[in-house]
Specification:
single chain; P-loop_NTPase; two-stranded parallel sheet; IstB_ATP-bd; ATP binding; Rossmann fold; 4 helices; IstB-like ATP-binding domain-containing protein
């Protein structure tokens, strides 16, 4: 499972001051759908999302798959529907369209290398 989780800072760290004012850090789960999930991984992801949902805490999730295609990644269709339901209820969904930043940066690096090689000759 590919995910990035933001851990809370140590209680004594200066970065923790925001926690005292009622701020919190969302869990960040990156690139859902990049890899297929076995039943255990899917159940664990559901448990994390479900606990955050019940506690009314945030989850920031990225994916390249439409929700209707999540059944191709998760083995249990019922669990997938429940997962999507909890993610979408009380959610702000941002759809980002356009070229991949990684692809754009890779193309720019390739172009710079090509220019450097031409200048060296």
């Amino acid at each position: 499972m590919t995910c990035n989780v933001v851990n809370h800072p140590e209680p004594r760290s200066p970065a923790c001051n925001g926690l005292r004012r009622g701020m919190y850090f969302p869990y960040r789960i990156d690139e859902v759908g990049y890899l297929s999930y076995d039943s255990k991984a899917a159940d664990l992801l559901f448990e994390v999302v479900n606990r955050r949902y019940k506690a009314q805490k945030s989850v920031a999730l990225t994916t390249n798959l439409a929700f209707k295609n999540w059944t191709t990644v998760f083995p249990n269709a019922t669990c997938t529907v429940a997962l999507v339901d909890r993610l979408c209820h009380r959610a702000d969904i941002l759809k980002v369209e356009g070229d991949s930043w990684r692809k754009k940066e890779a193309m720019e690096r390739q172009e710079r290398r090509k220019d450097d090689e031409e200048n060296d000759q």
